[in-house]
Amino acid sequence: MTLSIDGLMPSCIVSVPMLSALLITFVPFRAQRRVARLSVGMSALTFILSAALLFSYVANPRPQWLSSGWAWGSLYLDPLSSVMAIAVAGISLVVHVYAVRYMAEEPGYARFYTLLDLMTGTILLMVSAGDLITLLVAWHLIGVLLYFLLGHDLERPAAQRYAFWTFFTYRIGDLPLILAAVLLYKAYGTFSLPELFERIAATPDAYLVFGMPLTIAVGLLVALSAFARSAQFPLHTWLPYTMEGPTPVSALMHAGIVNAGGFVINRFAPVLMHAGAVLHLVFAVGLVTAVMGSILMLTQNDIKKSLGYSTMGQMGFMFVECGVGAFSLAIYHLIAHGLFKGTLFLGAGSVISDARKQDGVPHDDVYTFVVERKPVASRLPWMLAALVTVVVPFLVLGLSRWLVGGNFVGQQGAIILLFFGWATGAQLLFSTYRLRAENPWRTMAMIVLSLAIVVAGYTLIERAFDLFMYPDRAIRERIYAAASIPPAIFDPLVAILTLAIVAGWFATYYTVATGKPRSADTSPARLALYSLVSREFYAADVYALLAQTVLALSKRMNVWSRWL
Amino acid sequence: MMKLLIAALFLPLFPLSIALNGLLVRMGNPAARFLLLLLWPQIGVFILHAARQPVPEGFVAWSLLSSAFYALRLLTVRDLGLWAGFLASSSLSLIWARHGANDFDMHIFAFWFSLPSALLFLLAGALARRFGAAYSGLYGGLARSAPRLSGLLAFTLLAAIATPPSPGFFAMLELLRREDTAPALLFIWLLWGWAAIWLMQGFLSGRNDSDPAKDIGRGGTLLFACILGVMVFASLYLKGGSL
Fold first, then answer.
1. Do the Cβ atoms of A564 and B201 come within 8 Å?
2. CA geometry: angle at A135 spanning B173 and B70, to 5°?
3. Are the beta carbons of A500 and A297 closer than 8 angstroms?
4. What whole-number percentage of chain B has pLDDT above 90?
5. Which residues does chain B have within 8 Å of residue A563's beta carbon, measured at their own beta carbons?
6. For position A461, what pLDDT does the model report?
């Protein structure tokens, strides 16, 4: 190991939380508060070290590989690991502080902090792993530790059941990554990540496995692993039910652990940039997950479960970003999502408690619209509102993009992301129309202004982030090129989707403007859709059936061969 | 071929595995079971090398089927002793997929796969002495009433299903180098995980108001933890984590 400050810092970031876990386990603390003090202090130290590491990297942007002297145990300091380390350490610190009082009444206080510290150290080891084996070991252990954290309440059967679901899904995600690592080692003869990526760049298509190029096979395995880890459809069922675990664990999981899929896709970017077909699959799975997660989020009446499905939807968007080649945007997204989702989880208990005493909803335009359903004060002319909805987001997004990179029209990934941004912005403006405010012009102007600020800010930060994460322009372009779809398919698809969405908006505006009553349709198709959504697309039911079948087979085998 | 079949008795392939499982069931003493499970596969490896003939590919397919069969059976076994025997049958049969390696590697390979299962026999004995049976789901709540025993049980079970950084994990990495057998191996590995967590939950979770004095002593815990620690460090030292 290099004994410079730069070399020691990544090792310290990983070992400080581990040391904390060891001390809590082996030093007999008499008071709970001493356990908490030690753990929070170590967590704060980890955060400070992570921040120092990031600043040090920004000052001297040169990736470093730190060997342990063995075949594994090396660390890799690069933009991805330095950014992820500070995000993980920051979220972990907040969770540590929150848990001091939240867990005070729970049995197993020291055990909880030991597991939390081990989890923090293991995630940090994963993000800074410099070789395949270290990555696999950390990847594996996260699933195991998460199982124990989610099942912290040993007397609640539900907590144990859903901890088991999570563990099993994580195992499904662990195994493809192991196979991917073994295939890479067999083909390129090294565990070291930087060395491996150099060899892949030199000869990406030199090997065939399972009848396909190695990069495609490995890319597919990495993507499968990421799907399970980040709750992509149909491997999503564990995520909304993990609320049975303690709230600090839910916060840590939704803000940090579940984002591992986006991380691993970025880590294997040098492989995936040669596997365009896999990126298309990632896009499709992400899109389906985003849509399903959003639908299920809207149909929940439990705030924590709703947040769980919201995470699923966000993970879907993150994979959409990866699928279009916007890898660094996915990392930016996962950090931003981690921060706001962590805040929401940690605040959910207080919101529920406050709402029981007083709903706290201000009696403004939103209240009168949603709760009192009062008749309209005034609204914009429908045709004008429809045109603003269609045109304004397009202009805001287009101008922002043009400011940071003039040639974005040539990048399919950017177009798809703009398309999503446009649809989201338009939905927001459409809500303004439906809101029926006292002063619709003022409300519309404020929302357009907010939209412009958010989009411009987001675009500028995302651009800066992209340049930091992937400073080599050739790599950025190579990733976007791999994610691109043949123009003969892409252009008509975008045109058809745009026309369909615009026609839908116009039709909806027209219907709302003419004041037609909402249909109380109870057709079989609607009822089928309702049952499909209320049963959460039957995914959990299908898995339960499969599990019962396997268990029945196992029982039968044990009965038949009881003498063997 | 006869020598290979004799080896299949010791590196247990179904239905020849009946000999090992039958002996393990009939032996009451946990220490005897522990020793038997450590020695049995070593004899198998010795015979396999003494045979000095290439192992037909059919044996590899047979070993995978046998391993999957026992892995599937593990899912609904609740007796810890029986479970450990089945896991040993499942994992030790995988040694056939490693044929061709040198003598030392094969012996070490067999040792790493048999040791965690053998340790489970000792824990099954400790549980049976305290609670009358080592049966998952019968009493539960051990994590609260016997934290040391349940900690050791959790660590040993995780080591037995090749969780890193246990030696089994690196052994499985070695096995996965064969592309044709890799999907079957991953399936078997998945079943091990499922079965182990299912079993562990039956012991650790739930409510148990039994006497905390039923937990094992500090000395025993330390000794057992040292064996687990030495197992991990020896594996890392010998192989350095390499394939």
1. no
2. 35
3. no
4. 49
5. 18
6. 81
Helix (H) or strand (E) holding A66: strand A64-66
Interchain CB distance below 8 Å, B201 and A72: no
Helices (H), B132-217: 142-145, 147-160, 167-175, 182-204
Residues A83, A71, B243, B152, CA torsion sign: negative
- The residue range of the domain holding B64 is 2-239
A452: enclosing H helix or E strand: helix A440-469
- Name the one residue in this structure whose structure tokens are 């962590």: A342
Mean pLDDT, chain A, integer: 83
Task: Write the CB contacts of A513 (distance below 8 Å, at least 6 apart in sequence).
Answer: A379, A382
Provide the percentage of residues in chain A whose pLDDT is more than 70.
Answer: 84
pLDDT at A161 over 70: yes
The chain B residue lying nearest A157, using CA atoms, is B206
The residue ranges of every structural domain in chain A are 1-130, 149-348, 369-513, 529-560
The length of chain B, given as a count of residues: 243
Do the beta carbons of residue A142 and residue A122 sit within 8 Å?
yes
Q: Total domain count for chain B?
A: 1
CA distances from A280 to A236, A266, A416, A480, A525 (A): 20, 15, 12, 11, 31
Which residue in chain B has the smallest CA separation from A209?
Answer: B179
Q: What is the pLDDT of residues B135-180, one digit of tens each?
A: 998 888 888 888 899 999 999 999 999 998 888 998 898 889 888 8
B186 touches chain A (CB under 8 A): yes
ipTM over 0.85: yes
One-letter identity of residue A419: F
Fill in the amino acid letter for B183. P
CA B92, B97, B103, B105: dihedral to nearest 10 degrees? -80
DSSP β-bridge partners for residue A76? A65
- Given a cut of 60, is residue A234 above it in pLDDT? yes
- Give the model's confidence band at A370: pLDDT under 50 very low, under 70 low, under 90 confident, else very high: low
